[in-house]
Design brief:
The protein is mainly alpha-helical. It contains 2 helices and no strands.
């Protein structure tokens, strides 16, 4: 039914919001880890932060 579909959609959106919030809270840690790996692998190209360049 439409109510069931809507309920599932709401649950999925809640999960997506929680995942994105957790990622946002730990973004700097993830960025530093990625930079460390890129240096270790010889990819010294600096990472860009999208959105700030626009």
């Amino acid at each position: 039914s439409h109510e069931t579909d809507l309920s599932i959609a709401v649950q999925l959106l809640d999960c997506a919001i929680a995942d994105l919030s957790a990622y946002r809270e730990h973004f700097e840690e993830s960025k530093q880890a990625a930079q460390g790996l890129s240096e270790k692998w010889g990819l010294a190209r600096p990472l860009r932060t999208l959105g700030r360049e626009r």
